Amino acid sequence: MRIEGKEQIWKEYQKEIPNDDFFYVRSCIRQNLFPASEVIFLKILREELSKTIYETPHHTTCGGIGYHSDIVPIETVMTIIARQFALMTEAGFENYACSCITSFGLYSEIIETWNHFPELLEKTRKSLKEATGREFNIPKHLAHASDVIYKVRNEIAEKAKYKLINKHTGKPLKVVEHIGCHYSKMFPNKGIGGAEYPYVLTGMVEAWGGEIVDYPERRHCCGFGFRQYLVQANRGYSLANTHKKFESMEPFEPDMIITNCPGCPFFLDRWQYVIAETEGKCYGAKGQGIPVFTYEEVAGMVLGYDPWDLGLQVHQIAVEPLLDKIGIPYNPETKYQGLNGKDLGKPELPKNICSC
Amino acid sequence: MINFGYKRNESATLDLDVDNSELYKKLLKEEPSAATCISCGTCASTCSTGQFTDFNLRKIMLLCKRGDTQSLEPIINRCMLCGKCQFACPKGLNTRHIVLILNKHLHAGKIS
Q1: Number of neighbours of residue B100 by Cβ within 10 angstroms
Q2: At B112, is the pLDDT very low, low, confident or very high (cuts 50, 70, 90)?
Q3: How many Å lie between the alpha carbon of B104 and the closest alpha carbon of chain A?
Q4: CA distances from B99 to A234, B85, B92 (A)
Q5: Is the model more confident about A90 or about B59?
Q6: Measured between alpha carbons, how far is A205 from B26 in angstroms, rounded to an integer?
Q7: DSSP A266-301
Q8: Is residue B6 less than 8 Å (CB to CB) from chain A?
Q9: Å between B43 CA and nearest CA of chain A
Q10: CA–CA separation, A325 vs A327, rounded Å?
C-alpha cells in the first residue's frame, strides 16, 4: 500500500485523547509477565510529564479472560465493568485509561451494547446498586494506555536520552509493531488508525527514531487467542500463528518488536524459545532471537532508565544485543538482582537459542 | 529437543468452493447432538488416548465439518470408547456415538 493511502486511512480513524486527568486500571496478567511496564507508565506520566493519573487498589479484573473463555456470562461482565466505572465516578474522574487490550475491547463492547440497548444499561445500574450500593457514569473518554503514550510521544521524544537508531551504522532500527487484536479489530473507530493500519505504535516508533517494518502477516494474531492457548490440546494452533508471523517478518531482518497487549509480547517472546526447542529454528541475527518489548519498556529505554529497572531481565529473548546496538549502558552483574541488591538467582539458559 | 506435550500445527488450506459435507450430514442425521459442539476442547483435554497418540475429538469434529475424510480415516479408530469425554462435555454430546458413527462410515467404504 502506498504511504498516501495509509495517511488517508489514519486521518479517518482518529480519536480524541485527553491530555490529562486519567483514572487508570491495571491488567490481571501484565505484572507477572512484564513486571515494570505499568509502574513505568505511571512514572513517566507523573514524574516526567507531571500528569494527573489516579489508581485505586479497589479495582478488580474486568472479567475479560473469563468472558472470552465462555465461563463468565455477559451480564456479570457488565456489572463488573459498571463497578469499575463507579470507582472512577466516586474518584471524580471522567477519563478512563486501561492497561489491558482485552479490557479495552471489552469496555468498548459493553459501552456500545449499552448505547444500542438502553434497557441493559438500566438493568446493570439496578444490579450494581442492589449488589454494592454504588452508582456510575459512563466515561467521557475511554483510552487504552498506549493511546495515552501515543498522545505524549513527542514530549517523550524531547526528553529522550536515546533514539531507536543503530549507533554502529547510524540507521534507524527496523521495528515490527504488533497491535493486540482487541484494540481496533472489533471497533475500528475506537483505535488510532483503524483496524487495518493502526497508527498507535507506528507513531511512537517514528517519533523515537525507528523505522517500521511492513511485512505480509503484520495484522495476524500473535497466537494467544484465549482458547487456542488456554486448552493444552489447542496450543499447536497458538504456536502455528506465532510461527506464521515470524516466518513472514524474518526476511526483513527486524531489530526488535514493540507491542501494546498483555498477551502478545508474552507469546511472541516465549514461543520463539519453544520453536527453537521443538524445531531447532532460531530467528534474529546469530540465532539470538528477536527481542520483544511493551511500549512502556521502549519509552523507558529511550528515556534512559536502567534496563533492569524496566524488568527486561525477565524476557525470554535476551535484550543485551539490542541495548548494545542503541548504546544503552547496563551492568551484567546486577541483571538478576532484586530490590536492595537481593540475589534472585540465575535462570537456566535455553539449549537451542543463543542467550546472554 | 524438549517435548512440551504439544507441537506446532501445520498450516492447512480449506477450499470453500468444494462442498464435501456428506459425512457431517450423515453424522447429524444419526446423532443430532453433534451440531451443538462448541469446539471447546474439553473432550481432548480429558482423553486418555490423547495422552499417548494424536487422537483429539475436537480436531476430529473440525475435520469432519471441513469434509477432510482423508485426515480422519487413520485416526478415528484410535478411540478406546472409554467415555470420559462424554462426562466432561459441557454440551452433553453423545461422544461415543459420534466416534462409532464416523468409524462406521469411514471404514465401510461409504465415504470416499
Answers
A1: 16
A2: very low
A3: 26
A4: 20, 11, 15
A5: A90
A6: 55
A7: HHHHHHHHHHHHHH----SGGG----EEEHHHHHHH
A8: yes
A9: 10
A10: 6
How far is it, in rounded angstroms, from Cα A293 to Cα A313? 12
CA–CA gap between residue A220 and residue A244 (Å, rounded): 8
Which of A288, A237, A294, A289 lies closest to A265, judged by CA? A294
Q: Would you call A62 exposed, middle or buried from its count of C-beta atoms within 10 A (0-12, 13-18, 19+)?
A: buried
pLDDT for B57 beyond 50? yes
B14 contact partners, CB below 8 Å, separation of at least 6: B66
Decide if A239 and B58 are in contact by the 8 Å CB cutoff.
no
Q: Is A348 on the interface with B (CB under 8 A)?
A: no
Report pLDDT digits (tens) over A230-245.
Answer: 877 788 989 999 999 9
Give chain A's domains with CATH numbers. Answer: 17-145 (1.20.1050.140), 152-341 (3.40.50.11810)
* A211-212 and A141-144 beta bridge pairing: unpaired
This complex has an ipTM of 0.78
The sign one gets for the Cα dihedral A162, A168, A169, A174 is negative
Per-residue model confidence as pLDDT tens digits over A330-339: 999 999 998 7
Using a CB-CB distance cutoff of 8 angstroms, which residues of chain B are in contact with residue A277? Answer: 1-2, 4
Q: What is the rounded average pLDDT for all residues in chain A?
A: 93
Third-level CATH fold of B22-107? Fumarate Reductase Iron-sulfur Protein; Chain B, domain 2 (1.10.1060)
d(CA B64, CA B20): 9
Q: In the numeric block, which cell numbers belong to residue A215?
A: 511485512
Q: Which cell goes with B71?
A: 485426515
Decide if A64 contacts A27 (C-beta within 8 A): no
DSSP letter at B3?
Answer: -
**Cα A119 to Cα A101: distance, rounded to the nearest angstrom:** 27
Please say if the pLDDT value at position A356 is more than 70.
Answer: no
In terms of C-beta density within 10 A (0-12 exposed, 13-18 middle, 19 or more buried), how is residue B1 classed?
exposed
Share of chain B above pLDDT 70, in %: 96
- Residue type at A107? Y
**What single letter denotes the amino acid at residue B101?**
I
Q: Does B9 touch chain A (CB under 8 A)?
A: yes
> The whole model's pTM is what?
0.85
**3-state percent breakdown (helix, strand, coil) of chain B, nearest 5:** 55, 0, 45
Strand partners, B81: none
Mark which residues 17-76 of A lie under 8 Å from B by CB: 70
Is the distance from CB of B79 to CB of B53 less than 8 angstroms? no
What is the rounded CA–CA span in Å between residue B21 and residue A97?
Answer: 47
Query: What pLDDT was estimated at residue A320?
Result: 95
Extract the C-alpha cell encoding A123: 438493568
